[in-house]
Amino acid sequence: MIRVVIADDDALLRAGVAVVLGTAGDIAVAGEVGDGLAAVAACRDLRPDVVLMDVRMPGIDGVEATRRIVAAGLPSRVLVLTTFQHDEYVWGALRAGASGFLLKRASPERLIDAVRTVALGEALLDPAVTRDLVARFVRDQGRPAADPRLRELTDLLTDRERQVLRLVAGGRSNAEIAGLLAIAESTAKTHVKRILAKIGARDRAQAVAIAYQCGLMADDK
User: Fold this and answer.
1) Which of 20, 32, 150, 172 could disulfide-pair with 167, CB 3.0 to 4.6 Å?
2) Pairing, β 2-7 against β 27-33
3) Share of the chain above pLDDT 90, in %
């Protein structure tokens, strides 16, 4: 059973999310909180598998709450919920250690799938927000959008690995990649692990940035 804490200052939204998650037989809502400090405390006390974290809350915001949860070495993985596609807080939350992000307008099915994905230890990148986050990453790193040094890294990938990396950069989960390429999910996961090792990316978020920085995504245009 996947245990979830919902952290959002909107009580109505918390109730709605709880109802949606309640329809999944493998997910249980362990608690609901309305601010960042309470979210950190809930992770310490309840040890949920996943925290659905709003980024804009009173007290400390979701970014700082995420940072404290990660710094404390708590097992809870943070999935950021955001209202706006270009929310500046989302990038900060990922840098603080969040495992992914999802727009609040996502469908109930997408929300349930996102919780399952993050609970399995995978990163979750909503395609609608990915491009904005990549732009922020590139700007923060101070490198041009097309970096030939990074292109050399992606040149080490096989054709299949390059195909998988494009899908990762599009915000696809391992399960979605498997479905699109008609391969086993375990095979998709193996491809992603090998890609991260070859290009020296610490996680999927950085792999996405590299895919855009090296010009890999432009190859499809």
Assistant:
1) 172
2) parallel
3) 51
Q: How far apart are CA 144 and CA 48, in angstroms?
A: 40
Q: Are residues 82 and 168 in the same domain?
A: no
Which range, of 30-39, 154-163, 171-180, 196-205, averages the lowest pLDDT? 196-205
**Structural element, H or E, at residue 2:** strand 2-7
Residues 68, 104, single domain; the answer is yes
- Domain contains 144: yes
DSSP state of 58: S
pLDDT value at 193 more than 80: yes
Residues facing residue 72 across a β-bridge: none
139 and 38 both lie in a single domain: no
H/E stretch holding 34 reads none
d(CA 48, CA 196): 28
Unique residue bearing structure tokens 């375990």:
186
